[in-house]
Design goal:
Length: 322
């Protein structure tokens, strides 16, 4: 979910905070692996970590129906951060709210983010971010951020302008709203116009240009395995691996890797700038419209045919460290 005001193209490759202490304790006690992730039902608990991993943060959204996300999350509202670029820096047309019509837990273990359009044609939706901004890989370690998500189930002209996203942004952005892309951005899951396609993107360095080819970013995409991204839940995962001689970033859907960026692929100073700060915070949102120009899809622009009311469902979000 790229930031300040620009358009950006995407290249296509491949086939193509309510953190709960009980979750961490249970996970560490269980010590079992991440098996059955694709087939677990909606409302499943945060998976316990594989051996050697620690659950650093987790939310399985088990609040009462109609409840807001828990206290470990903050809700972003309006047309942008105060003092930052309008339209959240990407030309989005919606206004974000904390209204339960846009944002609530469903009582069945899911967070629900729903774009709405009122009688005047104005769009609203929601965006949340973790209060914590210290998620990072330790020296010699690995960070894993993952979520089990069902994208808005809408299609064809009714989907025009839908832009759901699950991503992480460098925490220095909270102090300097014009520091993008130097502070780094990891787009773990993005989708546009309800294509059956997940995009994974790294943003870094300077814009325009730089070693992350801004405003495009270093991107790849692929279709969701077995069922479309809209028909079913899929697990989207990002890893930042500092355990080898060369650091590497990796993107997965349902355990299948489809994108990677190595430290050697990026300017040394740019890599240092995006990895040496305190860490990242995690975001979830459904934008309407905006500058996600994929070379095939074009800008996400809602039309009169765009159908409001199709939610993104989030079963869980988890951050693991090894």
């Amino acid at each position: 979910m790229a930031l300040p005001g620009r358009s950006r193209n995407r290249t296509t490759t491949g086939t193509a905070p309510r953190g709960r202490g009980r979750l961490a304790a249970a996970a560490l006690a269980a010590g079992i692996g991440l098996t059955g992730l694709v087939t677990t039902p909606a409302g499943a608990d945060v998976p316990p970590p594989d051996e050697g991993w620690t659950l650093t943060f987790g939310d399985d959204f088990t609040g009462a129906a109609g409840a807001a996300p828990g206290d470990d999350w903050q809700v972003d509202t309006g047309r942008g951060y105060p003092g930052g670029p309008d339209g959240w820096g990407t030309g989005e047309v919606q206004t974000y709210t904390a209204d339960p019509e846009n944002l609530q837990q469903d009582g069945d273990g899911n967070l629900v983010i729903t774009p709405r359009r009122d009688e005047s044609g104005a769009w609203t939706s929601s965006r949340i971010e973790t209060r914590r901004g210290d998620f990072k890989a330790a020296e010699g370690g690995v960070l894993r951020i993952e979520g089990r998500i069902r994208m808005p189930d809408v299609a064809a002209d009714g989907a025009l302008g839908y832009w759901p996203a699950f991503w992480a942004l460098g925490s220095p952005y909270r102090e300097d709203l014009w520091s993008w892309p130097t502070i780094g951005e990891f787009d773990i899951m993005e989708n546009v116009n309800a294509e059956n396609r997940v995009y994974g993107v790294l943003h870094c360095d300077v814009s325009p240009g730089g070693s992350c080819d801004e405003t495009d970013g270093l991107a790849a995409s692929r279709e969701c395995p077995d069922s479309t991204c809209q028909e079913a839940f899929h697990t989207y995962r990002f890893e930042w691996d500092r355990s080898g001689e060369v650091e590497e970033l990796r993107w997965y859907v349902d355990g299948q890797q489809y994108h990677s960026v190595r430290e050697s692929d990026v300017d040394a100073a740019a890599w240092q700038n995006m990895t040496s700060h305190d860490g990242y915070f995690v975001l979830l949102n459904v934008a309407v419209g905006g500058q996600f120009p994929d070379k095939n899809s074009g800008i996400t622009t809602p039309t009169e045919a765009t159908e409001p009311g199709h939610p993104m469902l989030v079963d869980y979000i988890a951050v693991y460290n090894r």
